[in-house]
């Protein structure tokens, strides 16, 4: 079972408008509500692939209840730690040009709740074949939270996939997750002059860098790989990285060799771009690309 | 007891930002949540004035639960009819220039739920001294809903204050509420060439037109009054009309003569402008203006 950790999930609201006009009132005619957060996208993609998955993390308040209800409707099994604070919302106003985002801060998580989650996670780790640690940390959670969880997983012999940014990424890399999967911008924010040598100094694990249509680059402790989509795919890139993360987590579980694993990640990421909704992918595009890429 | 009817309440979310930039992502650091909708503002103002009030209307879903919790925290007594649909949200993104609004549609209310509310309202009307009918109608509610409720109130001898716009205002006026309180723009949308004679053709009751700093104009079946704030007040005009409505509802209950009632409405409206939050007013400004205006 792949356990996906989402410490800062969200209720994602999408408001379609003709055009966003600052300082006007927009009457929204249709609201899309989705359980959001990178880890939940990973869980949904794995569930859609038919892979056994368990979503865990922190949920609280009435917005947390709504997120739990949406996950249930998606059929994704979950075991969240309930917290006193209210799970955040994100609002995406989508007009004919692009999306404008408003991201609420996560709830403040006191130390006692974080300890309770770590204990809960220790209880789940025995059933896990892989753990994914994805997304931002809500306020109050220690910046080395992912390193703490990665060490719990390591002590149980469970490989970890890490996908976050900023100081949480730097601290998490130090714990040597099997794979860290930043995108190119997140890595550049950490070190604008990064290269294989600087990455290997930051982590004992492998790093897979996603770079949109330029595909994936993997820097392992002793090798490098690249994999590029055979055809350009247009659509909604939100959630494409999460689909890549899902493919890498599955590959970790199955002990897939790097070329096959990267080919699968590229195909699933592109199939996610072809789907209008984050956390979903186009199965036809996936099958087609998967057979077209073979191994990288 | 003044009964305030809010058929389309909302969870009002306010997101402060430095500047709203279309097609960018804005990280919100602080979210203000408020029970919104004109009728709930009227209820809060009356409650703050120490007047016995009961808020009724339609609430549903998890967002409805949050609105009920916020009203409870405000200490406003309520007796809402629960519906299956989810109460709407409004998002106001406030930058240093002005607010940008995103208003979700209300939940679709089936005929059976509307009938259930009318029966509930019939049960409350015996305890009411005045009824306020404020705000928009959610989808599914008949356009003459306020006329239906006004007739229930009339049959119990309870005067009605109506504050809405568009077709709901036109249909409501036909039922002859004691006072209709549109603002100048809402009235112009109904009839750009309105005057006392055309208004008297639309309703057997009185009409109070609010016009911002220009004050109030009352057209009764047999007279006209004007009342202007003695000093300009700057601040947040959102909710000022609702404070006026609260003053008029109290005046209706007490049988206050027009000049005194309008003076109170002008003072309370201006005191609401002086408060940064809709549905609240500055008590000091209110006292000062109230003594300054006397009667109009």
From TrEMBL, chains A, B:
Keywords: ATP-binding, Kinase, Nucleotide-binding, Transferase. The keyword Nucleotide-binding applies. InterPro entries: Carboh/pur_kinase_PfkB_CS, PfkB_dom, Ribokinase-like, Tagatose/fructose_Pkinase. Gene3D superfamilies: 3.40.1190.20. Residues 9-278 form the Carbohydrate kinase PfkB domain. GO terms for cellular component: cytosol. GO terms for molecular function: ATP binding; phosphofructokinase activity. PANTHER family: 1-PHOSPHOFRUCTOKINASE, 1-PHOSPHOFRUCTOKINASE-RELATED. This is Tagatose 6-phosphate kinase. It comes from Actinoplanes regularis. The lineage of its organism: Bacteria, Bacillati, Actinomycetota, Actinomycetes, Micromonosporales.
